[in-house]
Amino acid sequence: MVVTASALSEAFLQQFQTRHAPDCFRAPGRVNLIGEHTDYNQGLVLPIALEMACYVAVASASHGKLRVYSSNLKQTREWPAAKIGSALPEHDWGDYVAGVAQELARSGYEIAPCDLYIRSEVPEGAGLSSSASLEVATALALLGHRSMDKLELAKLCQRAESRFVGMPCGIMDQYASVFGKEGAAIQIDCRNLEYRAVRLPPEVRIVAVNSMVKHELGSSAYRERVAECNEAVAAIRKANSAVESLRDVTPECFKQVQNSIPSTPRKRARHIITENERVSKFSAAATAVDLAEMGRLFLASHRSMQHDYEISCEELDFLVETAVSLKGIEGARMTGGGFGGCTVNLVRPDAVECFRKKIISAYEERFRITPLFYECTPAPGAGALL
Ligand code: GLA
Asked: Which residues, other chains included, contact 24 with Cβ-Cβ below 8 Å and sequence gap of 6+?
């Protein structure tokens, strides 16, 4: 149910101001360095958790509701707390909250009446996981002092997004928000759900550039890609029944079976299989401080998304081409789901300012849009604020 009265928001805010110390939780956004769309194919990804995060404060209440106020949007949503199990999606931001609450209830965690106050620094629609950070911060706030295994928390939030919100996403975003490491990227193996920290050389900065566009195609194309990957697996299984996902297909095996896969799923599979290799190679290159190799892999990943996975767009291609033509830029690629959002760039520290100026002027001239820049420092994963 949508509550519009601004008086309610005022009262709500006051409640938080007068409360001595509401419990407050933080969950970061993420930027993925490399390994795109590999997560739902049980592959490898390499995100970093961001300093930009979503914060959720929680206070218990006696009104019987799960009531939530977004200070970014200045909107309130509410549901009867005891009936959260039967809530239905309303196709807006409240779905992330209701979805998480519903999954918690399904897992046996009672949702007691409470007020949630949300403030997010993660830009929406930029491919930096504003949704996952909202889900994870909400889950922590609703759990309160009850504990949950970290992997279960990430999986629960992913379930909320796929079941309630209706987006059949992989585990990367929620996992990165939960497990993020200060000072390092995390290479997640989405098959066994383990990760290892990968330190990045101080010789490059990670700079995300927000194209400020989000083409509508995004969510339908995501579903299509999931289906096409499954189609590729089904075709490969006819020749090799041991294959359960594209993760099980080596480049050599792919060469042998590729002609038996219809052409579109074949291209999608080629992206996933080569992208998994690029993630391993990128982590090794980062450890060896081989900036040229890191840059080469970034660009190869972008080309693969442009031509094989077909999830880039004019604005992202322009940002990547412009970036790699500049001095001091080791590599650039689109990041996230695609069709808009951000590029991620490996920039020499002394080139950051010049990079910013040149990209702004070129992008403004071409698209009449001013892009935004985020210098990304790997931050810790989600938790309570003291
Ligand atoms: C979105 C999804 C992730 C992942 C990326 C692409 O962010 O939520 O699970 O598939 O796209 O890498």
From this structure: 55, 56, 57, 58, 141, 384, 385
Instruction: Say which CATH number the domain at 190 has.
Output: 3.30.230.10
Annotation says 173 is catalytic: yes
- What residues are in contact with ligand 1 under a 6 Å CB criterion? 32, 36-37, 39-40, 169-170, 172-173, 336-337
Q: In this structure, which amino acid lies at residue 106?
A: R
Per the document, the length of the chain is 386
pTM: predicted TM-score of the whole model, two decimal places: 0.95
- Residue 171: closest CA among 132, 134, 139: 132
Instruction: Give the nearest ligand 1 atom to 132 CA.
Output: 8
- The range of the structural domain enclosing residue 155 comes to 2-198+380-384
82-129: per-residue pLDDT in tens? 999 999 999 999 999 999 999 999 999 999 999 999 999 999 999 999
* Catalytic option among 39, 95, 115, 173: 173
Which atom of ligand 1 lies nearest, measured to the CA of 167?
8
* Count of structural domains, the chain: 1
Question: Do residues 372 and 362 touch, judged by C-beta distance below 8 A?
Answer: no
* Spatial distance between the Cα atoms of 202 and 186, rounded to a whole number of angstroms: 16
For residue 238, being part of any structural domain is answered with no
